[in-house]
């Protein structure tokens, strides 16, 4: 029985019940099935359940099922109801949920007097703009944080089971209190969703001539605006206070920049604008991973003909040049049969990449740090 990481044994065994066969539930099911775990799926929608089963995310429940672990993957507004029901039906199982808000469901369960010894809230920081079992992927959790919210009553073996679940799915377990979690996701997830949606909403009635100029930058900043409104209304309402706090701070920042630009020649106006951009540089530099700048990369742009096999040839040439691609994005040029491939590499390999690709006939549009 193998994990998603080659050479490592899976930690979770026995039966796992997943309630909610949408994107996250089906993705967890797919990953656990790869590890040989008996996955039992449940969903209030028979069609959704059948679809997830057809995709191989698990099996439908049967009388006599006795899961060791229950994972609640329902919308935020029914998480408390579902957790309470699962704890009642399966008193010997450990129950977790993957909702993106942790404090409000916990408060509701406590108000009801539910015994929470076997309950541990958790949240994998993973997802996609499109939901449903049809969008599920077994590798969606690889390298992503998985927040685990324990309390003083949590048995060691229950905590270990949720940690094992995260590790088996290739995620990185991180312990937080529910309060810490909700403040954190307000900043790095919930407010970015609102900002992206508000910005993208400005395009709804924009002239086509303006939208034709859109490049990769605006696509990057509005990508998550395609998310489902029904789900986000629930998330934002459940985490309203931390979200409002961040939105108020952001509104103040926007107002300062707007006031400065009303008269760009006024004393201090240009500094205000420059400080806003510079502070953004500092902030993005703190983001972990390749998209942050804790490790600096150099980028260059290659013009790629819009023809079959061209990207494969480009990556093949980079491999022959022994250049590792740290990041990659492709943008199509409006009105032209070519794409612009922006490639990030280690600074030590930049010149080798540019010279080597040029010698192989590739057109280099630019190189910069």
Automatic annotation (TrEMBL):
Pfam families registered for this protein in UniProt: PDH_C (PF20463), PDH_N (PF02153)
Highest taxon in the source lineage: Bacteria
Domain Prephenate/arogenate dehydrogenase: 14-291
Gene3D superfamilies tied to this protein: 6-phosphogluconate dehydrogenase C-terminal like domain, NAD(P)-binding Rossmann-like Domain
Molecular function terms from GO: NAD+ binding; prephenate dehydrogenase (NAD+) activity; prephenate dehydrogenase (NADP+) activity
Keywords for the protein's UniProt record, in alphabetical order: Amino-acid biosynthesis, Aromatic amino acid biosynthesis, Oxidoreductase
Catalytic EC class: oxidoreductase
Claim: Amino-acid biosynthesis is one of the keywords in the record: yes
E.C. number: 1.3.1.12
Pathways involved: Amino-acid biosynthesis
One of the protein's GO biological processes: tyrosine biosynthetic process
Alphabetized PANTHER family for the sequence: PREPHENATE DEHYDROGENASE (PTHR21363), PREPHENATE DEHYDROGENASE [NADP(+)] (PTHR21363:SF0)
UniProt record similarity statement: Belongs to the prephenate/arogenate dehydrogenase family.
Name the UniProt record assigns to this protein: Prephenate dehydrogenase
Phylogenetic lineage: Bacteria, Bacillati, Actinomycetota, Actinomycetes, Micrococcales
């Amino acid at each position: 029985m193998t994990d998603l990481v080659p050479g490592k044994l899976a930690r979770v065994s026995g039966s796992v019940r997943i309630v909610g066969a949408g994107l996250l539930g089906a993705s967890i099911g797919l990953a656990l099935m790869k590890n040989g775990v008996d996955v039992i799926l449940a969903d209030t929608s028979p069609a959704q359940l059948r679809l997830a089963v057809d995709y191989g995310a698990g099996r439908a429940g049967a009388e006599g099922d006795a899961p060791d672990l229950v994972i609640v993957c329902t919308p935020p507004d029914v998480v408390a109801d579902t957790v309470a029901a699962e704890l009642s039906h399966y008193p010997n199982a450990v129950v977790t949920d993957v909702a993106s808000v942790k404090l409000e469901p916990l408060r509701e369960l406590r108000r009801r007097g539910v015994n929470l010894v076997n309950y541990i809230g958790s949240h994998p920081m993973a997802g996609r703009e499109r939901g449903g079992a049809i969008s599920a992927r077994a590798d969606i959790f690889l390298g992503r944080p998985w927040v685990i919210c324990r309390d003083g009553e949590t048995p060691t073996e229950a905590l270990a089971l949720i940690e094992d679940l995260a590790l088996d799915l290739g995620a990185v377990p991180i312990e937080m209190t529910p309060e810490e979690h909700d403040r954190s996701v307000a900043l790095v997830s919930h407010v970015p969703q609102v900002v992206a949606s508000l910005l993208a909403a400005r395009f709804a009635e924009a002239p086509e001539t303006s939208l034709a100029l859109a490049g990769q930058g605006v696509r990057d900043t509005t990508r998550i605006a395609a998310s489902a409104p029904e789900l986000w209304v629930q998330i934002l309402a459940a985490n309203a206070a931390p979200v409002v706090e961040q939105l108020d701070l952001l509104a103040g920042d926007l107002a300062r920049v707007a006031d400065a630009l009303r008269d760009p020649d006024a004393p201090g106006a240009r500094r205000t604008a420059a400080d806003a951009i510079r502070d953004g540089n500092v902030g993005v530099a703190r983001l972990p991973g390749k998209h942050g700048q804790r490790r600096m990369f150099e980028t260059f742009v290659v013009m790629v003909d819009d023809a079959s096999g061209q990207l494969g040839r480009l990556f093949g040439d980079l491999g022959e040049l022994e250049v590792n691609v740290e990041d990659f994005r492709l943008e199509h040029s409006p009105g032209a049969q070519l794409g612009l491939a922006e490639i990030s590499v280690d600074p030590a390999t930049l010149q080798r990449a540019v010279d080597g690709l040029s010698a192989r006939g590739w057109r280099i549009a630019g190189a910069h740090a």
